[in-house]
Specification:
107 residues; alpha+beta; two-stranded antiparallel sheet; 3 helices; globular
């Protein structure tokens, strides 16, 4: 079966690929997909996972637009035609401790 994969922002920098299609066996999980992708992109697994098997908290993985956090985590099974998007942490802005207001420098 075929899975569409997208790498955003710094993960694009790491892989050199924005999107690709991968042939995988039936019943493959996100965890196994990461293993398979790591064969093509050797630094991917160590970037995404900590302790070898847990998604680093700053990363997000979406399956068809839904975070695996709300599915079965890395054990989420994929189906033919699914799209998996790997999202690195976002940066930017300033958040003042204890405040819910964005920082704006005073002139």
């Amino acid at each position: 079966m075929k899975i569409r994969v997208r790498f955003l922002a710094t993960l694009f920098d790491l892989t050199g690929v924005l999107k690709t299609e991968v042939e995988v066996p039936d019943g493959v999980t996100v965890r196994r997909l990461i293993d398979m992708l790591n064969e093509r992109f050797p630094k991917l697994k160590s970037e995404l996972l900590q302790n070898g098997d847990q998604l680093r908290p700053m990363y997000n993985v979406l399956v068809n637009g839904r975070s695996v956090e709300w599915l079965k985590g890395l054990d989420t099974e994929l189906k033919d035609g699914d799209e998996v998007v790997f999202i690195p942490p976002a940066a930017g802005g300033y958040f003042e401790q204890g405040s819910h207001t964005a920082y704006s420098p005073q002139p």
